[in-house]
Design goal:
The chain has 232 residues and is mostly helical. The protein has a domain at 65-226. The chain is built from seven helices and no strands. Helix 2 packs parallel to helix 4, helix 3 runs antiparallel to helix 6 and helix 6 runs antiparallel to helix 7. The protein starts with 18 loop residues before the first helix and ends in a 6-residue tail after the last helix.
């Protein structure tokens, strides 16, 4: 994948490439988080973040393709790799990270809002639909695509810039799951971090983490439907 930087498209020196614009954008993102924390955001903040990210790309003359929304080799390879990595992430969360955090923090993730899925086919179907749209597609575009790239832009897209971006963005990703309590915040932040690693290791490809994310959430919701999810 070709490098996508602030000078793409021959706009060297354009206001669209200035770091002050990155700072302003990140302030707007922070504002959306604050409004959501105070319950002023209807439905989901991901919708508003995605709309803002789309506007940012349009202003800068970029498309989601430029940030990695494309197949990884072939679609068969993309789906197979995404599913394999998703299975690994799900196993890691269920059998390693979440049990460890529960043991250390003495608190299960707060999953009260998902109790309605137990034995309910309709709500589970809607949850899985949301998992593949708002969560897998929407969150990957927002966090791994838009935000990781904008934070990296702020530090000139060096190797260290991507490392800073990886950590900084996923602190925010964890906090976006504050409704799950401290255990959920740390666990979701870690899962987001690993999805960010996948994004970087696949040459900043978004399709692979989208599939991986969708699979992990689908398994979670099926387990909740069956009453088999840990802590429920």
């Amino acid at each position: 994948m070709s490098e996508v930087g602030p000078n793409r498209g021959g706009r060297r020196g354009s206001w669209r490439a200035r770091k002050w614009l990155v700072v302003v954008e990140l302030m707007v993102v922070a504002g959306i988080f604050v409004l959501d924390a105070h319950h002023y955001i209807p439905l989901s903040k991901t919708i508003f973040l995605l709309a803002f990210a789309w506007t940012s790309l349009w202003v800068r003359g970029l498309k989601w393709y430029d940030l990695g929304l494309q197949k990884y080799g072939t679609w068969a390879k993309t789906i197979a790799l995404g599913m394999a990595l998703g299975a690994v992430l799900e196993a890691f969360e269920l059998f390693v990270s979440q049990p460890f955090l529960v043991r250390v923090l003495h608190k299960q993730p707060d999953l009260e809002m998902f109790q309605a899925l137990h034995g309910n086919v309709k709500w589970t179907f809607l949850a899985i639909l949301g998992a593949w749209t708002l969560a897998a597609f929407g969150e990957e575009l927002v966090y791994r695509g838009y935000l990781m790239n904008r934070v990296a832009d702020l530090f000139n897209r060096t190797s260290w810039a991507w490392i800073v971006s990886l950590f900084a963005v996923h602190v925010g990703f964890g906090l976006a799951h504050a409704y799950q309590g401290i255990t959920g915040v740390i666990d979701e932040g870690l899962m987001g971090f690993l999805l960010g690693v996948i994004y970087l290791r696949t040459g900043r490809n978004l399709a692979v983490p989208i599939v991986a994310h969708g699979l992990t959430d689908t398994v979670d919701f099926v387990l909740m439907f069956l009453g088999k999810y840990p802590g429920m």
